[in-house]
Design brief:
The chain is 43% helix and 15% strand. It contains 19 helices and 15 strands. The termini are far apart. Bound molecules: pyridoxal-5'-phosphate (PLP). InterPro entries: Aminotrans_3, Aminotrans_3_PPA_site, PyrdxlP-dep_Trfase, PyrdxlP-dep_Trfase_major, PyrdxlP-dep_Trfase_small.
Amino acid sequence: MSYRTEEVAYVQPAQPAASAQAAQAAQQQRSTAEYRALDAAHHIHPFSDMGSLNRSGSRVIVKAQGVYLWDSEGNKVIDGMAGLWCVNVGYGRKELADAAYKQMQELPYYNTFFKTTHPPVIELSALLAELAPEPFNHFFYCNSGSEGNDTVLRIVHQYWATQGKHSKKFVISRKNGYHGSTIAGGTLGGMGYMHEQMPSKVENIVHIDQPYFFGEAEGNLTPEEFALARAQQLEAKILEIGADNVAAFIGEPFQGAGGVIFPASTYWPEIQRICRKYDILLVADEVIGGFGRTGEWFAHQHFGFEPDLITLAKGLTSGYVPMGAVGLHDRVAKAIIENGDFNHGLTYSGHPVAAAVALANLKLLRDEKIVERVKNDTGLYFQKQLRETFANHPIIGEISGAGLVAGLQLAQDPKARKRFANGGDVGTICRDFCFNGNLIMRATGDRMLLSPPLVINKLEIDEIVSKAKIAIDATAQQLGIS
Ligand SMILES: *Cc1c(COP(=O)(O)O)cnc(C)c1O
């Protein structure tokens, strides 16, 4: 216990608990103020300014069901972000809890390092091979998307070593891409604020510009012309470094954390053409796009290209337990399998409980036809309602997205594509209005993001859209724009 706990005078010392149930009941009886004081005293949150968070206090989320969350004050909140883009099957699915419980009793842990395996990881791999596009038949497991992208780097370098092309070392990614927050993930990503705090980086990673039409297109380029020009930056970068030195290109099919940026249809076919022409592996980071988000099982199918590696996490288990994976195209898998040791692994690679939960999760997505429903019904409805509701809105510049993911661009002058000078502040104002209106909608700079659970129904979509409208109207009003 740190000295800081003593400063918080109104926190009662914990009583010894008679049993686990009593301890749990005691925990749930804490007041919001007590939770906040203890949280402030002992918990450092990810991606947060702890000084200011501790002064304002966090919202304490205590339970969830379907697409709704409840906080410790009893407020019911609609979750427009599926947690952090991950709770694809919604909260409270007993099938997943049962799978974990059963697996914990049967075999809570065993490793897969030393000539051993176990049923859950075998079943999961077979089902992933069935659900993924035809050339993806092999999967390597880890615990997160970040570790997935670290694994991607290991596979990429091993692949080129097996081909005798040892000079192929550079990996090209994009500014404002997000690939996680390990050192490799953070270096691959193009988030300036993360790079600034991290002077030590992984070598041989370089960035090209993102296909962000609203924010970065100049002159009279159409979205298609702009996307093509941005894709051709890859070719220029390859020629600059030398194709013999470039191992891979990695990108999210659509940028998630970067603001739900959907490139025009010309982008990915051109990226694929360039990768093939110069013999460079193409990696799709499907951590958000995978498992139904766009209405296809994988977002690269939505954009019509064929990567060599796919990074998976988030929706793989719907966030119920941590798990990540990398899917290998047959031609990459063959090289890895037939060329000796692959020197990479994590204690929890293919963890039996995580694998059992992932398996139960994927069966729900498949058997309840959740992805098909997003594609043919709820996703179409969500996109239509957003576009209709915000057509000609005074501060909405564009709506991007497909299926059940959308980015709403806040803009000073939508028609002129003029952004706010203090866009991040405007996003925060809007986010706070959403929060107060019991809607979780995330702000990334001046873009508002939605990515609800894939099981959402039309009434619940209406609720999200109308709450978003109230918050965005209030934002415009506060800025004096109408
Ligand atoms: C969230 C995310 C990651 C990182 O996943 P973690 O599980 O947080 O490590 C990587 N790539 C993309 C595209 C993501 O959205």
